[in-house]
Amino acid sequence: MSKQETSDSPGPGPEAALGPGPGPEPEPEPSLATGSDCSNDRYITFRGSPSSESHSDSGFPSSRVSMKSDRSMGKPFDFKSGPGPAAEGVSQQSSQVLRGGSAPQHQTHLDSIFMMLEDNVVTFMKEELKKMKKLLSPDYPACSESEREDEDEEQRSSRESFLRITLDFLRRMKQEELAQRLWSRTSSGVCQKKLKCGLKKRFQSVFEGLSQAGKSTLLNQIYTELHITEGGNEEADQENEIRQIETASRTADRADTSIRPGDIFKGPPGRSETIRTVLTKGVAGIGKTVLTQKFTLDWAEDKDNQDVHFIFPFTFRELNVVKEEKFSLVGLVHHFFNEIKEAGICSFEEFQTIFVFDGLDECRLPLDFHQTKILSDVTDSSSVNVLLINLIRGKLLPSARLWITTRPAAANQIPADCVDMVTEVRGFTDPQKEEYFRRRFREEEQASRIISHIKTSRSLHIMCHIPVFCWITATVLEKVLKSREGGELPKTLTQMYIHHLVVQVKVKMVKYDAGAATDPHWSPESREMIESLGKLAFDQLQKGNLIFYEPDLTECGIDLRAASMYSGMFTQIFREESGLCQDMVFCFIHLSLQEFLAALHVHQTFIDSGINLLEEKQTTIQQSPQQPQLHLLHQRAVDEALKSPNGHLDLFLRFLLGLSLETNQSLLRGLLTQTGSSSQTNQETVQYIKEKLSESLSAERSINLFHCLNELNDGSLVEHIQQSLRSGRLSTDRLSPAQSSALAFFLLSSEEDLKEFDLKKYSASEEALLKLLPVVKASNKALLSCCGLSERSSGALSSVLSSQSSSLTHLDLSTNDLQDSGVKRLSLGLESPHCKLEALRLSGCGLSERSCGALSSVLSSQSSSLTHLDLSNNDLQDSGVEHLSLGLESPHCKLEALSLSGCLVSEEGCASLVSAVRSKSSHLRELDLSYNHPGDSGVKELSAAVEDPHCSLETLRLSSCGLSERSCGALSSLLSSQSSSLTHLDLSNNDLQDSGVKRLSLGLESPHCKLEALSLSGCLVSEEGCASLVSAVRSKSSHLRELDLSYNHPGDSGVKELSAAVEDPHCSLETLRLSGCGLSERSCEALSSVLSSQSSSLTHLDLSNNDLQDSGVKRLCLGLESPHCKLEALSLSGCLVSEEGCASLVSAVRSESSHLRELDLSYNHPGDSGVKELSAAVEDPHCSLETLRYGHTAGAPHGD
Hints:
- Residues 1-104, 139-158 are annotated as: Disordered.
- It is found in: Cytoplasm.
- The protein is of the alpha/beta class.
- The chain contains 46 helices and 30 strands.
- It has a 17-stranded mixed beta sheet, with no helix packed on it.
- It is globular and about 125 Å long.
C-alpha cells in the first residue's frame, strides 16, 4: 500500500462540507470567512481517506481519483468556475456590499448568495448523480467515461471532488461493491488511454532481424497480412520444424479460409460458440510475435476490437524472469503494467480483458495442469505458474480471453479441453515471397535476378516460406551482389549461412572496430566470439533451449557483459531481449542460425582436437594426414539424425555436411585455422548416405538425406531419375528403394503444384507407392488404379488420410487386391477428423459385404468429408447394401454420389436403399444401380421412394438391369411427380421396347417433369417408339437437353419425324445420340434441315457407326454451313466416309459462321489427301476446330 493511501492526517471528511449523511454524527460545520485572510487556510481538502479501514477492505483509494491528469490528485474541493451566468449579477453586488455595506445588508446579500449557491450545488449534484446512476447500470459500457473533451480543468476538478464525496457516502452506507464499481468505471477510461499510449510506443516499431541496437521500422509500414487458418496438425507438432516448413511450403498457396488477426476471437464463419482461449501455432520465425504485436497495436490505435477495455501482452521470456516470485493476478498485472497500478484498478470482472501470452515454447515455468491447486481470487498470491494454470483453466478470471502463441512442439503443454480454438500461422506464399524481395530491392533487374536465383535452389525457396529467412537471404544477396559484380550467388543453405556470418563480422569490424572494408575480418577477438556462440548454440540445442539466461551463459563461460557485447555487435546473429522488467534474455534470431553455429562448433572442434562431440562418451579420433577421419564424424551424425523420431537433427546434419566442402571452408578462411576435408572424405560420406537410402527408411528421412547430398553437391541419383523420366523408361523399370526416394525428392522439389499424381506414370508397384507417400500426401488427386496394391498399401494410405498436412481429396484405388481387410484399415484414416477425402473409388477391389460395415461407419462419422463413393464391380450382395444403408441414413452422412454397379443387388437390396433415399437428412444426388437385378418390382419400390418430397436424388442409373415395359409405368409416375428432383435417367440396355417408351413418354410430357437427360440406348426402340417421344420433346414444359437413342432401330423415317420435332421452337434438345441405328444417307437430309433451322438448339450430334457414306456427309454439310447452325461437336466415326466426304467437310469447317469445336472421323477412309485437306482447313483463321480425330486416335488440329 502506498504512503498516500495510508496518510496519518486524513483531514476533514466530506460530510463537513455537505451536512449530515447516513454515517456517524457530523462534525461542527466549519465557518466560511469570505473577507478574512484566515479563509486561506480553511479550504476543504480530501487528501486522506475518511475511513481508512473501509479503504483497506475495498482495495482502492477513497480520495485520490484522477479523471484526467495527476494535477487533480489531492486537490482542494474547488468551485472556481462559479455558480454560472445566472449568479454573476448577485456576485458583483455582493462584492460591493461586503466592502462597505451595513450589517443587515451584508446578511441579506449573504443569504441571497447562499440560496443561489445551494441551487447551483444541488443542480450540479443531481446531474452528476444521474450520470453516475447511468454509469452503474449493467448494460453501460465500462470505459465510456474515459473522456469529456469539452470540459475544462476547473469543471473536471469539481466533478472529481464530487466523485470522492459520493464514494465516501456510498461506503458509509455500506455499499462497498457499488462504490468499487463506480470508482473502477470512472477511472478505467483514463487508465485505458494511458495503457494504449504505452503499448503504442512499445509496438509501433519493430526490429527486422535486429536488436535494439539496430534501426527500427514502423510495424504498420512493413507488416504483410499473415495467413491464419483454424486447426493444427497434431501429428506434425512433434516433427522437426524443417519438415513442417517443407510441407507447409507445398500447401501455402492452396485455398483455406483465412482468419483476420483482429477476428481471432470471433472464429471462422458459422461458428457460434464463445471463444475464450485461442492457441496459435507456427514454426520459429513464421511471424507469431509480430502478429500479436500488430493485434495489440491495432487496438491501441483504436483500429480494432474497441469493445475490449484492456489488452495485456506478456511474453513467456518476461514471465520466466519472475518465476521465483509470488504475485496475485492483480499484482502480476500491476508489476508489468504500471498504468493499471497507478489507476489502482484491482478488479477486472467489470472489464472486457484480453491476456496475450507469446512464446509458450520458451516457457520455463512448470505447467502441471493436474497437480496444481485451484485459485479463483484475483487478489490471492501464488507463484506465476499457478496463476497461469488457473487463468488458462478458467478458474481465475473466467471472463477474460486468452491468446497463447507457441511453436508446434510445445503446443501439447496446454490440455485440449482448456483451448476453444487452435489456429496455425502459415508462412509466405510464393507470390508473397516475390512481393517481399521486390519491396526490398527497388531495382527491377536486381530483384528479378534474386527471385530467379531463389527459385532455382529448392532448399532456399522452401526456407523463404519463413519471413525471417527472407530477410537473411536479402541481406546476404545484397552484400554479395555489391562485392562481386556478376559473381556466383550462394545456392545451398550452408553457403547462405556462411555468407550471413561473414557479412555480420564485417559489419562489426567496420562499425565498431574502426576497420576498413578491405581489412581481414577474422581477428582473434571475433574468432573467440564465434567459438563462444557456437558452444552456446550446441549446448543449448542439445537441451532444446532457444532462449538463454545468465546461468546458461555462465555454463559456456560467457558473462553478461560479454553477451551484451555480442548482442550489440552481432545484432543479426544474437539478439538481446529486454522485457518490461529490463532483465536480459538472449536468443539467436532464428533456430536455423543456432543449428548452423552448433554444426560449425562440432565441425571446428573435431578438426582442431579430434573430439567427436556427438559421441555420448566423447572420444578423440587420431587424425592422420594420409587417412582423414572426418567421414567418421559424418557417419555418426547421419546415424543420429536417422534415429531421431521427429527429425530434430535434420537441418543440423545438412549444415555439418555442407561445412566439409572445401569451397565452403574457403569462405571461412581465418576462422577455420585448418581444413579437415578432401574429395575422398566427401565421397565416402556420399557413399554412406546412398547405402542408407537403399535401406527401408521412412520417406521423410530419405528426403532429408537427399537434401544432404545436395549440400555435398552430389545430384547423381536425382539426375538418373530425370533421365529415366525423359526417356520414358521409368514406367517400365522396377525402381530400387534409393531410386524411389530420389523420385519422391524430385517430384516434391518440382515447382509445379501436385494437383494430380498418377503412379502408373512412374512405377506401378506397391514398393514405389510406399516410397512416394509424401508425394501422395502433397497431391490433391492420387490415381493408383491397377497398381498391384494390397492391404499393406491400405495401412500406409490410411496414415496419409489421417494426417492434417495431407492435401488429398480424391483417391482412386480401383482394380487392386485390397480385399475387406484393406478397406477396414483404410476406414481408420477415413474416419479421422483430419481426413479431407471427398471422392473414393474402390471399383473391382475384391470386396464383400464385410467391407460395407466399415464403410457404413465412415459414412455416419460426423468428421467424414466423403461425398462420392464408387463400390462398383464388388461382390457386396443385398446383405452388404443393407449394412451400407445404415450409414446412408445417418444424419451425419454427406454422400452425394454412390455407385453400386455390378454388385449383385436384387429387389431385396433395393428395398434397403429405399429408406436411405427417403431420409430427410439424405444428401444423395446420384445413384448407380446398373448391371444388377432389381427387377421391375424393385424399380417400382425405388420409384416411389424417389417421388418422396424428402428425396433429393437427381441422377438414377439403371442400365442393364433386365427391366421390361412394366418398369416404365412406375418411372413415368416418378417423372410426372411434382416432388421429384430427377434430372438424369439412364435406362440403356433394357428390354423396354416401344410399349415401354410409350408409357415413359406420358411422364416426359407432364408439366412437372424436370428430366434433362434420358438414355434409351439399346432398348429395342423402333420408329413407333420414336413417334411417342416426338410429342414429349415438342412439349412446351419439356426440360430435356440430352437424348440417347443409340443402338435402336428408329429407321430413316423415325429420324425424320424426330428431326421435325427438334426443329420445333419449344424443343430444348441440345445433344442427340443416334449411334449404331442403321441410318442411311436419307436421314442426313432431315438432320441437315435441323442444323440449318434457326430455332434448333442442337450443339452435339453423334451419328457414329451408321452407313451414311460420302453422299450422306455431303447432305449434312449443307446444314453445317448454314449461318444458323449451332453445332459444336459431331461424331461420324465408322460412317464409311472417304476422301470425297472429307472434301465436303472442309468447306463446312472453314465457314466463318461455324461453331464446330470437335470432329470425330475415326474408323473411316479419308486417305492421305483427305487428311491433308482437313489439316489445311484447320489452319484457316475462320476454323474454330479444337479436336480432330482420324484413323484410330485423336489428332491435334495443328499437328501438335
